[in-house]
């Protein structure tokens, strides 16, 4: 959801995992009236070997609207967002005690 305040457009960016959810307000680009924006979509995934014949799969994806001439920059931004989310989830999973381990 987005809203316009003082000539700027703000959107709510939400992050969720198993234990928590956070929300952040970010300024987003307002597109010229009648413009159909291009869309850049990036998705990344990672499978982590947990040992003992178990694994965990993590996927992150983001889709960003942009002007056609900004596709390269939007791709880099989307790729960075996905990478940050994957790293946060990997850290969380690796910090969890393994089933059957003493802790």
Structure in words:
By secondary structure, this protein is an alpha+beta fold. The chain has two domains: 1-30, no CATH class; 33-103. It has one helix and five strands, in the order βββββα. It has one helix at 71-95; strands at residues 2-5, 8-16, 21-28, 38-51, 54-66. The strands form two sheets. It has a three-stranded antiparallel beta sheet with strand order 1-2-3, with no helix packed on it. It is elongated. The mean pLDDT is 80.
Offer a few descriptive terms.
single chain, 103 residues, alpha+beta, 2 domains, three-stranded antiparallel β-sheet, two-stranded antiparallel ribbon, 1 helix, 5 strands, elongated
Backbone structural class? alpha+beta
Rounded mean pLDDT score:
80
Distance between the termini: 42 Å
Radius of gyration: 18 Å
- Please give the domain count: 2
Unreliably modeled segments: none
- Say how many strands there are: 5
Q: Tell me the series of helices and strands, N- to C-terminal.
A: EEEEEH
Task: Provide the fold topology.
Layout: E1 2-5, E2 8-16, E3 21-28, E4 38-51, E5 54-66, H1 71-95
Antiparallel strand pairs: 1-2, 2-3, 4-5
Please outline what is shown here.
By secondary structure, this protein is of the alpha+beta class. The protein has one helix at residues 71-95, and strands at 2-5, 8-16, 21-28, 38-51, 54-66.
